Amino acid sequence: MAKPASQATSMTDVARRADVSLQTVSNVLNRPERVRPATRKRVLDAIRALDYTPNVAARRLRSARASTIAV
Fold this sequence. Notes:
By secondary structure, the chain is an all-alpha fold.
């Protein structure tokens, strides 16, 4: 099933493609030393195949931090 061009690839899509949990994808991106090399490779291959890029705006909302200075 193809995604519409306007819809970005999500971490869930990567997890499905690599046949791992969403938490495993998160660990590969944030704490790769916690993931076995074979699993890490599967996730990284899925990231490349799907052309996944993290959503910076979503990450900032999640962390409740912004990199702007108010004047």
